[in-house]
Design goal:
Blueprint lengths: L23 H14 L10 E8 L5 E7 L7 E5 L2 E3 L6 E2 L13 E4 L13 E5 L3 H10 L5 E5 L8 E3 L6 E4 L2 E4 L4 E4 L4 E3 L2 E4 L3 E2 L12 E3 L2 E3 L14 E3 L8 H17 L7 H18 L13 H12 L6 H16 L11 H11 L4
Parallel strand pairs: 4-18, 6-14, 7-8, 7-14, 8-10
Antiparallel strand pairs: 1-2, 2-3, 5-15, 9-10, 11-12, 12-13, 16-17
Helix pairs in contact: 3-5, 6-7
């Protein structure tokens, strides 16, 4: 998951977690090391929030910011361009459940989950079927009385005990909740639950942008964006980094950043506004033909490397190495086959060796 020219490896000086799937502390150490290596800290204002980004009549963008804790209206500065990199793991997306307002249990989102101990001897429903739901349901099962996973993609009559567990079941989606604490699934079965855990992803949120940004967010589609980066109407003075999900994040974000930097410097020329809008419309038509809902607009599960290689070509950068692509693909298979142990068991040591050999040029 490391940046293309800065290895994320246990062999790097300062690494303290040698596991192939390290904890968040190691990821933080890696990012701090990257910032030091490229002297980025002097360019960052920490503990500073952006209140508004406004398009100027004479060109440029007025950015109003203030230090956290300050009560004033903030300081306004004008820039030639704005690149939005505020992430999309802050504003939780909550499942709509009829009757839940009168339901007597507790609701929370995976964003606030830390450890399983508070759920001891409780009945917990986990909504979702992606990475956070898989990990959290199994973690909570170590202490909870029962854990029930509600998956909207599962057939309506689904009620399956999960292999290796006596207290973990997979169900279809919740139909409704009741005042007595019961939660009813689509097949009509019900359980009395203490907690509903929403592992349902996040919402794109840009509270500092106004209508002059020309983008809207509808059902988690940031629209319109050429190649998920540039709003055609105001490109290249406004751009977005990091919107795609179900990706290897750092390489993709690095290539997006290289592309934006190349465009802003004049080394790379974007298509016309009309051509960019046609590209956006064509992309939406492909999504509709696949039957993908609007909320999956930025889901790159099936074509992240195609996108990466397109970005690399635009920037004159080599394509993503084959060992990275193969490692990602094989890990996905391994996770499906070994959901409990994929972090500790794998069958691609030859790719790990190839990666370590590749990293030597940067160490």
């Amino acid at each position: 998951m490391g940046f293309l020219d800065f290895p994320f490896s246990a062999a790097v000086p300062g690494s303290a977690d040698p596991r192939r799937f390290p904890g968040h502390e190691e990821v933080l150490r890696y990012l701090q090391a990257f910032a030091r290596r490229f002297d980025l800290l002097r360019l960052i204002r920490f503990e500073t929030e952006v209140l508004r980004v406004r398009r100027e009549d004479r060109g440029g963008w007025a950015v109003t910011s203030r230090k956290l804790g300050d009560k004033g209206s903030g300081e306004e500065e004008v820039y030639d361009a704005v690149v939005v990199c505020n992430g999309h793991y802050t504003e939780p997306r909550i499942a709509v459940i009829p009757g839940v307002d009168a339901w007597s249990g507790k609701q929370m989102h995976s964003h606030n989950y830390r450890v399983p101990e508070p759920f001891g001897d409780q009945v917990v429903i986990v909504i979702g079927a992606s990475a956070s739901a898989v990990d959290i349901s199994r973690d909570i099962a170590s202490t909870a009385k029962e854990v029930h996973i509600a998956d909207r993609s599962a057939p309506a009559r689904t009620c399956v005990k999960q292999h290796g567990y006596n207290n973990l079941w997979l169900h279809s989606m919740i139909d409704h909740a009741q005042e007595d604490g019961s939660v009813v699934f689509q097949d009509g079965s019900s359980i009395k639950a203490d907690v509903i855990m929403h592992c349902t992803g996040y919402l794109y949120d840009f509270p500092f942008l106004g209508d002059d940004s020309t983008i809207t967010v509808d059902d988690n589609r940031v629209d319109p964006l050429y190649k998920h980066v540039f709003p055609p109407e105001v490109a290249p003075q406004l751009s977005f980094i990091g919107l795609p999900w179900k990706v290897i994040p750092f390489p993709l974000f690095q290539l997006q950043s290289k592309w934006v930097a190349g465009v802003l410097s004049g080394r790379i020329v974007l298509p016309s506004k009309e051509q960019m809008m046609e590209d956006v419309k064509a992309f939406y038509s492909k999504l509709e033909a696949r039957g993908w809902p609007k909320r999956y607009t930025h889901n790159f599960a099936n074509y992240q490397f195609e996108y990466d290689d397109w970005l690399a070509e635009q920037c004159g950068h080599p394509a993503i190495e084959e060992w990275r692509k193969q490692m990602y693909h094989i890990n996905g298979i391994n996770k499906a086959v070994r959901p409990e142990s994929y972090r500790d068991e794998w069958d691609d040591d030859h790719l790990v060796a190839e990666a370590n050999e590749y990293f030597k040029k940067y160490l």
